[in-house]
Amino acid sequence: MNDLIEILLSASFWAAAIRIASPLIFAAMGELICERAGVLNLGIEGIMVAGAFAGWMAVYAGAGLWMGVGVAMAAGMLFGLLHATLTVPFGLSQHVVGLGVTLLATSATYYAYRLALPEVTSPPKIDAFEPYAIPILGDLPIVGTALFQQTPLTYGAYLTVIIVSVVLFRTPLGLAIRAAGENPSAVAAQGLSVTGIRMGAVITGSGLMAVGGAFLTMSAFDSFFFEMVNGRGWICIALVVFGAWKPGKTLLGAILFAAFDALQIRLQQTPIGADIPYQVFLMAPYILSILALVLMSRRAAVPAALMVPFNKGER
Amino acid sequence: MRLEPIPAPSLARRLGLPLAALTATALLAMGLAALAGAAPAEVAWLVLRGAVGSKFALLETLNRATPLIFTGLAVAVAFRAKLWNIGAEAQLYLGAVVVVVLGTGMLPWPAATLLPVLAVVAMLAGAATLLVPTFLKTRFGVDEVVTTLLLNFVALLFVSYLLEGPLKDPMGMGWPKSPRLIPEARLPRLAEGLRLHWGFALACIAAVVVWVIQTRTIWGYEMRTVGLNARAARFAGMPVNMVLVRTAVLSGGLAALAGFSEVAGAKGSLTLDLSPGFGYTGIIVAMLALLNPLGVVIAAIFVAGIFVGSDSMSRAAGVPTYIADILLAGSLLAMVLAIGLTRRRVVWR
Amino acid sequence: MSDAAKAEIVLRLEHITKRFGPVTANEDVSFAVASGEVVALLGENGAGKTTLMNILFGLYSADEGEVELFGHPLPPGNPRAALDAGVGMVHQHFTLAENLSVLDNIVLGTRPIWSLSLGLRAARARVMTLMTDYGLHVDPDAQVATLSVGQRQRVEILKALYRDARILILDEPTAVLTPQEAEDLFATLRIAVARGLSVIFISHKLHEVAAISDRVVVLRHGRVVAQAGTADTSRADMARLMIGGDIAAPALRPSAPGRALVDLVGVSTPGIGAIPGLRDVTLSLPAGQVTGLAGVSGNGQGALADLLAGLIRPTSGTLAIDGTTPTDWSPRTAIAAGIARIPEDRHGTGTVGDFDLAENAMLERYAAPPMSKHGWLNRKAALGFADRIIAAYDVRCPGPTTPIRLLSGGNMQKLILGRVMEVAPSVILANQPVRGLDIGALTYVHEQLLAARDRGAAVLLISEDLDEVIALSDVIHVMSEGRLSPGFDRGTKTAVELGEWMTGAGFADAA
């Protein structure tokens, strides 16, 4: 019990939680934008894989770190374009297309990896983002260590949440996105293009998902492994539901989730943890996500037109 | 652009578009092979030869198709009722687990009783695995796509725990692997000297049974109605939740039979790489078959052929095997688009 | 108002033709609208009114012909151009996002999309002014989901006015209003034309057209069959022009009510969101009588229909069928109890579009012989059943193996009618049975309901069209906010009096 309290009060624990949360924040914000516009993007898992590889590969090939982030984002947007084209103007099943995009992005990434590094047994490391303490804020006790001694990419995650919130709730564009997810014919009746808004949201959101993936290779593990995304995309979908499609609550959910994940890693190293099979700890995030979905199912403010295709010819 | 419905599409449209979709993805894959420095035509030839070019290759393809028929059927049955079962992987593993638990000596019965019992119990385990997300869907309205996906990870970790703990093979030299099944628990070969076990025959029979259920029985009629229009089904007095439960039992059971057939037929023991994504590939199989149970058999053989052929091509031409996965994922998307455009035409305006 | 000397022509339609595949929706349609004028576009369902307005609004583009707004040709197929030119459209199905506020709905799309601010403060002030000027009061911060249908329509009109619309198009605006709310709408429209706006009023209700319009344009089968000043045309002439003949009013035979086949005593059901359930409803449906249920949509009629269809159960009170209270109440038991259910939404609940006619015909009786035996389907029985319905109910179709989505609404409704009538039901629940049907199918359905009444069935007719309820019912009840009025015998209440009940006046707990 004392172990537990000690862990929960340590700044390094919360710093780890924020680190674990960062890729989830990017990807969950990306998914949130898509779903707010009315498109469920199950391509998230594969797009994160593609982003992880693209960013890492670009840096390995000599690009700067931010350039790498840009390359990852572009890769994500490319798969986003594919997803959006099939689901928005063609109105195809968002479930099947999303899974197809995940399978395609994953296999295309693995293929590209094998082509780029045919003879390599263990993937090379890159010089990834380093932690950077923000002046003054970083000196605050506990909070400073936890929040403001992170890598620049984590600060990017904070910024993303702020931008997504402001755009969604304070600008005409955001209003149009939300309306497209609630009742696309309301958007069309104002002479706005539902297709354009939804496609833009899916492409932008997919770009953010890819940055989330890139965080893994460029700010966490410094290298690319197969199966490194490991269900994080699916967890982000649960986080968006948990956050009731609101950026702030989704952020909170991501941090809570990451704190739990950080906790289980540490508990494994305590005496209690040694008696429990490690698989139980590893299962916890997935089971937690399912529980979150059940818990929030009753009061979820799901966008009314989520997964409803819009074709202006039909009424 | 806009889509205009075509009330009664022509036969040419209904057959031509899917064929065009497959051709387009095949061309894409050949382009990717060229990226790897291989001659596309040669790659295509090598894949074909590797898949069906010899008796050995053909049997290998049919062996590989066996679990895919089961998972493809599992997905086809579920999708037909709009139950989005993406968890065939988990159901497959849970089915395999009970086969190993009961088939390694716990039930010392002759094959004639043991094998049917193993199959049925495996199906029950798979069914139970899918019933959890189905219940969460009917009771709490939780989207089963996400829950079945997440449960795949849980199931795999559970198997990992079993293989390092209670089900660990004492003779396995520390490798996470189960003991071997007793001979009575092994599916015999279809014919003496033929490298194809009874699992393949069972899969084909299962496809026919599923087809009969779907087209000839009231349960199948209910499943189709619920899938096409759940509100109309409820209005007509169908027990919609019960129909979903029945669908889940059938779908989960079929996926678990893939686990049964792989352990009892092909491998003889359980390892963590029992399924290289058979559950996910089942989705591709089902979609390529347009959710038709009989079509699943053909689609599964096609998909298995791509995998087997790519393996052998990869060794010869140095193109990574992942080209097979790209080809299949691409054909899934192209096929969905082809189906979508069968009944609607694009109007540019 | 239409002083031709000073009135400027604001809209001109020239030889508009629009085809959907083999169907010609509009053929060579021409007319003009002047400023400060209310033009009624009169026509039956399927006459091409809505298509024409969608062309004018830029949602469709015409195959031939031209639209001219304020002297400039309108580029086809672009709603933005129509909006910017000052056309405001209030669709029959509102285009509001329910989970957004009234204000959000109004400002949607009014500022450049990349602008950094929504400008809500200025917008609010402007909306408040418009509300006072036009008498359109509604809380700007309310979520649309919480508003009544009448309030939602006000939001739609505000949306158009906020965009400086000079021409207002209203598609069947009174279909969802009580007569009193319709009066309020007319008052708003009169303010609008006094301020120089033009109004195109689409309707098939003659008395409204007579009350509000200056000129009337009659459409039939996609063509303009007449244009005239409203004052110069009698209602009877309008009706004849609209339908192409005289309306055959259903023959009114006196009813002979028998014993009560359905009895509700003090029944309440839960509401769904802003739509109320039933509140302490007592109703009895006697054999051999058409009981009409009038009311504005979303006042609990849906709950009553769902209850009788077996979809929901009372939370309190009792439901008795032919004198006995069923222990189990579900769609299946309702069907078994002899209730013929004609659902409100024939596409969404009545049929499965991808099933053929035979599969649709057997939907309600697939689980018992002859349609199935021991769980095995009998396809022959289903085909036979469908054939019988097709022949007896005049369903126009290629055959029982045709997918039902290929049928017209009228033929689809005839199949549903046949499916439930073939087994001589004792109770008929007809929820909006003729909505969207052309005059032929409409008359047919009404005749069938009256014939069933004469055979001794208890018929419950639920309709938002007060005229339909008055024409067919022996006894009329009105629903408002889940409450049921007493039954009024045929001829004892006028439309206006019933309209008062629809607004909630007259109920015991009314303020």
Q: Quick summary of this structure?
A:
The complex is a heterotrimer of chains A (315), B (349) and C (511). Chain A has helices spanning 2-9, 11-36, 44-60, 65-87, 94-116, 143-148, 152-170, 172-182, 184-189, 194-220, 232-242, 247-268, 271-275, 278-296. With 315 residues, chain A is an all-alpha fold.
Which short descriptors sum up this protein?
heterotrimer; A: 315 residues; mainly alpha; ABC transporter involved in vitamin B12 uptake, BtuC; 71% helix; 0% strand; C: 511 residues; alpha/beta; Rossmann fold; 3 domains; 7-stranded mixed sheet; 6-stranded mixed sheet; 17 helices; 22 strands; 32% helix; disordered N terminus
Fold topology:
The complex is a heterotrimer of chains A (315), B (349) and C (511).
Chain A lengths: L1 H8 L1 H26 L7 H17 L4 H23 L6 H23 L26 H6 L3 H19 L1 H11 L1 H6 L4 H27 L11 H11 L4 H22 L2 H5 L2 H19 L19
Helix pairs in contact in A: 2-7, 2-10, 2-11, 2-12, 3-4, 3-5, 3-10, 3-11, 4-5, 4-10, 7-8, 8-10, 11-12, 11-14, 12-14
Chain B lengths: L1 E4 L5 H25 L4 H13 L2 H26 L7 H16 L7 H30 L3 H21 L33 H19 L1 H11 L1 H6 L4 H28 L10 H11 L4 H25 L4 H21 L1 E4 L2
Antiparallel strand pairs in B: 1-2
Helix pairs in contact in B: 1-2, 1-13, 2-3, 2-12, 3-7, 3-10, 3-11, 3-12, 4-5, 4-6, 4-10, 4-11, 5-10, 7-8, 7-10, 7-12, 8-10, 11-12, 11-13, 12-13
Chain C lengths: L8 E12 L2 E12 L3 E5 L6 H8 L7 E6 L2 E2 L5 H6 L2 E4 L11 H6 L12 H15 L14 H14 L4 E5 L7 H16 L3 E6 L2 H7 L2 E6 L2 E7 L5 H9 L16 E9 L12 E6 L2 E6 L6 H9 L6 E6 L9 H6 L2 E4 L3 H5 L6 H5 L10 E2 L2 E2 L1 H14 L16 H13 L5 E5 L7 H16 L3 E5 L3 H7 L2 E6 L2 E2 L3 E2 L5 H8 L9
Parallel strand pairs in C: 3-8, 3-9, 6-7, 7-8, 13-19, 13-20, 15-18, 18-19
Antiparallel strand pairs in C: 1-2, 1-4, 4-5, 9-10, 11-12, 11-14, 16-17, 20-21, 20-22
Helix pairs in contact in C: 13-14, 14-15
Reported by name, the CATH topology of chain B is: ABC transporter involved in vitamin B12 uptake, BtuC
Q: Please give the oligomerization state of what you see.
A: heterotrimer
| Largest interface in this structure | A-B, 49 and 49 residues
- Give the class-level CATH name of chain B: Mainly Alpha
Q: Could you give the count of β-strands of chain B?
A: 2
Low-confidence stretches of chain C: 1-5
CATH architectural category of the largest domain in chain C: 3-Layer(aba) Sandwich
What does the overall shape of chain C look like?
A: globular
Low-confidence stretches of chain B: none
Distance between the termini of chain C: 39 Å
> DSSP helix count of chain C?
17
